[in-house]
Amino acid sequence: MKEKIISKASELFLKLGFKSVTMDDIAGEMCISKKTIYKYFCNKEVLIEESTSMVHRQVHEIMDSIVAKNYNAIHENFEIREMFRDMFKNNIDTSPIYQLKKHYPEIYQNILSHEIDQCTQCFRDNIEKGIREGLYRSDLNIEVYVKFYYTLIFHINENTVSESEAQRIELEALEYHTRAMATEMGVQELEKQLKRIII
Length: 199
Hints:
Elements: H1 2-16, H2 23-30, H3 34-40, H4 44-68, H5 73-87, H6 96-103, H7 105-132, H8 142-159, H9 163-181, H10 184-196
DNA-binding region: 22-41
InterPro entries: Homeodomain-like_sf, HTH-type_Tx_Regulator, HTH_TetR, Tet_transcr_reg_TetR-rel_C_sf
Protein name: TetR/AcrR family transcriptional regulator
């Protein structure tokens, strides 16, 4: 039951917003009493923490499955972007990350500390892969580029209220990041990915 509550709460938080979803809403959606929810979670903050942890795990599992498909480095980044777009396509237009930072800053900071390590590793792996494939320049200072991209993406998510706007700017950031690193072959692959994208 605990897992079912976390799963339903995650879905509602992403769709309707962390602030607006109440314990009553979750109980109503699940046809259970509010008392049942409080049996597992002493308050809404604890439920938000558990829910964001679950979403975090799911995101990284999907990212791992994309990486396992062995696309080239540029194609891989576009597949990951599409995964995020699909995950958040049914939500209200307010970015979940922006909401979390605004209304539940402690939970946000906690998630961020885990995210920093995993994202920087993911970006690093992608750059190293792209260099091996000849899509990114071999003279790149990998750590600096990881930091550049990480700073860009997190700044966009923290400061853009609208989810659709955040996704549009993220695509620009991905193109900017890729062009900065790409060899001639990499630019051709980037153009190919941009042509097939659905904004």
